[in-house]
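Input record (Table S2, row 345):
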Amino acid sequence: MEYHAVRWDDEEDMLVLLDQRELPSGVEHILCRDVECVARAIEDLAVRGAPAIGIAAAFGLVLGSGGKESELSHAARRLISTRPTAVNLFWAIGRMLERALAVPEGVDLKKELLEEAKGILEEDIAANRTMGILGQALLPEKCSVLSHCNAGALATGGFGTALGVIRAARERGKEVKVFLDETRPILQGARLSSWELAEDGFDVTVICDSMAGALMRERKIDAVIVGADRIASNGDVANKIGTYSLAVLAKEHWVPFYVAAPWSTFDTSLASGEDIIIEERSGEEVRLLPGGKRIPDRIKVWNPAFDVTPAALVTAIISEKGIFRAPYDLKDMGENDPEGQDVII
Ligand code: MRU
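Output record (MRU complex):
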């Protein structure tokens, strides 16, 4: 089945988002003709995953460009307010606004922005393919890999980052079994990664998050591979809550812990992960239990959407620019200044 998390429809002049809240039971789409629709889809996790959020926001600016400069600035502010952790969002908006500034008077702004957004989408797929080729070399010919959350085609322009490496390994004839953490509370592993890998015919096993340690102790995992939402210059990695626990377990059991992410996920303006803003989401996500049951309001819940894994626990970071290993000094790899948009809006 052919699916795209984010797709631009030229004929209808609209953005088509696969509604990931409905997966795996239903395949439904959200048709966005204005920036508010895109912003809500990002906030509500209809579209999610760091690169996909950035791409959706880029197209959101196309929809919000409306002719006047003030409208574009308003659209950018709205999109920036949706989610704080994935740097791809800020990077993509910064890049779109820079393009807007460079458009000469009399030239169609919306057309130029559409070209830029399509470029961001295509480059993301290309980066994932390159990461796949580089990263698959780290995996043995026959292996079992554990992943967390969804860092696949659904989280990106296509192919995926962590799941892209797994796909590339199979394309090269490697035999890869995949274990997936269900990833409480939103279940991106159980609902999304399992769906897209099963669509591709992978041997997939879903486990509860609390089972990863037992699996490693039984020597059933050869590598852990995850995506990222923001990577600081020193190699600290923000990713879905639970990633840090996995990295600690991997170290204890001598299992390599790999992170795969495009350069748009690196934030070289940050010295370390301490400065990464961690999104805290509604407690309802934790309160809701299977079977429609609910943790009562008198009981407190805590719901950070991400955690930071210290660089010391990361065996290697796979990007389209190459594979990095400790000591990480990613600043030297080139500038990626997500704060650029501050100057413009
Ligand atoms: O809250 P989400 O579903 O947007 O979180 C997504 C993740 O944490 C992914 O692992 C990360 O964005 C990498 S996607 C290639």
